[in-house]
């Protein structure tokens, strides 16, 4: 009988770390998918010289005014990048809302389905903007 790990896979832990025996730490299952998503969202397009298209365009938006237009642009960029770079998931919805504890932060709530297991999950990613100085 196949397990979830067989369907979703195993990969290097992110950030790269050592396991207790000194080898490279690995992650499996849905944790592997989640770390792949975080890697895409945390990488700015153009950051990787050999893969300039890899990453997410939200990093170009950090100086934007925190309003509905910015929230829509963030949701669009997140949806586009995860759809392109994490084919193991289907993005169901991206909800972007202000963080009530930090005025310069938007919380990006990604609802997604792991394709191979039909497992519905969500991931919350903080988007930090740089506010204008008055």
Please name the defining characteristics of this protein.
Nuclear Transport Factor 2, Chain: A; single chain; two-stranded antiparallel ribbon; alpha+beta; 3 helices; three-stranded antiparallel beta sheet
Let me know the largest β-sheet.
3 strands, antiparallel
Give the count of helical stretches: 3
Report low-confidence residues grouped into runs of 5 or more.
Answer: none
The average pLDDT is: 86
- Architecture, CATH level 2? Roll
What percent of residues are in strands? 25-35%
Helix content: 25-40%
Number of DSSP E strands: 5
Radius of gyration: 16 Å
Task: Tell me about this structure.
This protein has 134 residues and is α+β, with helices and mostly antiparallel strands. The chain has one domain: Roll (Nuclear Transport Factor 2, Chain: A). 28% of the residues lie in helices and 30% in strands. It has 3 helices and 5 strands, in the order H-E-E-H-H-E-E-E. The chain has helices at 4-8, 29-42, 68-85; strands at residues 10-12, 26-28, 89-99, 102-114, 119-128. The strands form 2 sheets. Strands 3-4-5 form a 3-stranded antiparallel sheet. It has a two-stranded antiparallel ribbon with strand order 1-2. The longest helix has 18 residues, at 68-85. The mean pLDDT is 86.
